[in-house]
Design a protein that fits this description.
- The chain contains four helices and five strands.
- The protein is an alpha+beta fold.
- It has a three-stranded antiparallel β-sheet, with no helix packed on it. Strands 1-2 form a two-stranded parallel ribbon.
- β1, α1 and β2 form a beta-alpha-beta unit.
- α3 crosses α4.
- The chain is rod-shaped.
- The protein starts with 10 loop residues before the first strand and ends with a strand.
């Protein structure tokens, strides 16, 4: 490997770039016959890849969610299971007319009001 002054370089050093330090270090290592290459700390993959995908709130445990009814009332629930599982349970209770264990089912059967499943909202963790 050759540099501008035609001196042969015996070694190659690849170092992170540090402002204020790298330039003097480059000149010192050049005098010692070491070719120096500085790499950037910023890499393209850091801007393109998220280390961990954000979990779907409907699948997380211990969440608050709200179920609206066509009458304008809402049912807010905290669940130890996922919101998705809670909705399935409420839907099953409504179909089986289990009004003793489900306020959602009780309201639906007493009033005839329908819940609006496509507008169920995730509120957040407790």
């Amino acid at each position: 490997m050759e540099i501008e002054n035609n001196r042969e370089m015996a070694f190659l050093a690849v170092l992170p770039y540090v402002q204020g330090v790298s330039q003097p270090l480059f000149h010192y290592l050049e005098q010692q016959g070491i070719c120096t290459v500085f790499k950037s700390d910023t890499r393209l993959w850091l801007h393109l890849v998220r280390p961990k995908d954000i979990a779907d709130p409907a699948k997380q445990d211990n969440m608050f969610y709200r179920i609206p009814y066509e009458c304008g009332k809402v049912y807010i629930r905290e669940t130890g299971r996922s919101m998705q599982e809670g909705i399935k349970e409420h839907d099953r209770d409504i179909q089986l007319a289990c009004t003793q264990t489900s306020a959602v089912s009780e309201h639906a059967h007493k009033t005839g009001h329908y819940r609006i499943w496509n507008k169920v909202k995730f509120i957040g963790p407790p």
